[in-house]
Amino acid sequence: MRLGSEPRGYVDLALVGYEFPDAVATGSEWDWDANWLIVDGSVRETDGRAWRFSGADLTTWEAAELGRWLRGIRELEVSSATSDATGRESRQLAFTEPSLGFNLIGRSNDEVRIGIHLEFDARPPETDEAWGDFVVVVTMTASELDRAIDDWALECAAWPKR
Description:
Layout: E1 2-5, E2 9-18, H1 32-35, E3 36-44, E4 50-59, H2 60-74, E5 93-94, E6 100-108, E7 111-118, E8 134-141, H3 142-158
Antiparallel strand pairs: 1-2, 2-3, 3-4, 5-6, 6-7, 7-8
Helix pairs in contact: 2-3
């Protein structure tokens, strides 16, 4: 799934497999080991800086939650994030592993602006500290958002909850 577009900058996210492919589901509602997913990411900022990352950053149910959140943006069910005490936009969508997070910054006419929060191995390699958000802001048209929603649904379907 691509969030954003060239030349405005983007973040590509792909689900590439289960962290523990041989894990057997125990039948528990929240079977963590059987449901961690490897996320491959590729980032290109508007200034041309680019990097890749990969890690077990989402569970199957968190990946599905991301899809619901994106659909909520399309359906106008998600409002813009509020600022924290430092004036930075807060994460609206956060996960167990803090490597990825998301917030809706705003919308105007046919576009939405999304903040993609990156931590740890998802941050640019030249970043000294691992803690704290590194935010990439992407702008998407309605058709780009629709394409991202559809692509993410296909990604999730390939790696269902076990």
